Amino acid sequence: MGLGSSIGRMEYVIRGQRVDEWREVKELRLAGLLDEAAPIAFLETYENALARPDAFWQERAERAAAGVEVKGFVAEDGDGRWVGSVTVLVEVPGGAVEFASQAKVPQGHLVGVYIRPEARGAGLGEKLFAAAMEWAFALEEPRLERVRLYVHERNGRAETLYRRCGFVRTGHTLPADVGGLEVEMAVERP
């Protein structure tokens, strides 16, 4: 069941991603990769993503819908069109590293944050993050101690959203592939 919210005059539903929604996963990801902030916000290019076979997108949707090591959340408008998404990766010490550094404690890692321009600025990002963090902190095994993310030091728009959602800089940074630094931000378990 999804969480409904009315922002402005538009009605949105925030919910977990479903396994059969690979076409929507692909379409929203490609839209995000065309965004002006994409070079500093995402680790892949539009061209690389576009060239991926359907099987890649099907597997990605299946993993994010399962909610075991990964859980995807989406925001839909009143017509069922996806207007935003965020994905939670579950990271444990000694586990696989998808991005950045090895987890020192069980934690969530938010990735794939994107909100279409027409849906920005009205609180939708906060609602997506609330759903993702509620799921992450409700896990019993592993019990996550924090949720982190990385933001490029020049992506002020994204960092502003993350701060509104309670994330603070941890002091840990990584060199970004596009120059500059990726800054770790985190929220500790409430």
What do you see in this structure?
With 190 residues, the chain is an alpha+beta fold. The chain has one domain: Gcn5-related N-acetyltransferase (GNAT) (Aminopeptidase), CATH 3.40.630.30. It is 31% helix and 32% strand. It contains 6 helices and 8 strands, in the order ββααααβββαβαββ. It has helices at residues 22-33, 38-41, 46-50, 54-66, 124-138, 156-164, and strands at 3-7, 10-16, 70-76, 82-91, 107-115, 146-152, 168-175, 181-188. The protein has an 8-stranded mixed sheet, with helices on both faces. It is globular and about 40 Å long. The two termini are 24 Å apart.
Ordered list of secondary-structure elements with their pairings:
Blueprint: E1 3-7, E2 10-16, H1 22-33, H2 38-41, H3 46-50, H4 54-66, E3 70-76, E4 82-91, E5 107-115, H5 124-138, E6 146-152, H6 156-164, E7 168-175, E8 181-188
Parallel strand pairs: 5-6
Antiparallel strand pairs: 1-2, 2-3, 3-4, 4-5, 6-8, 7-8
Helix pairs in contact: 1-4
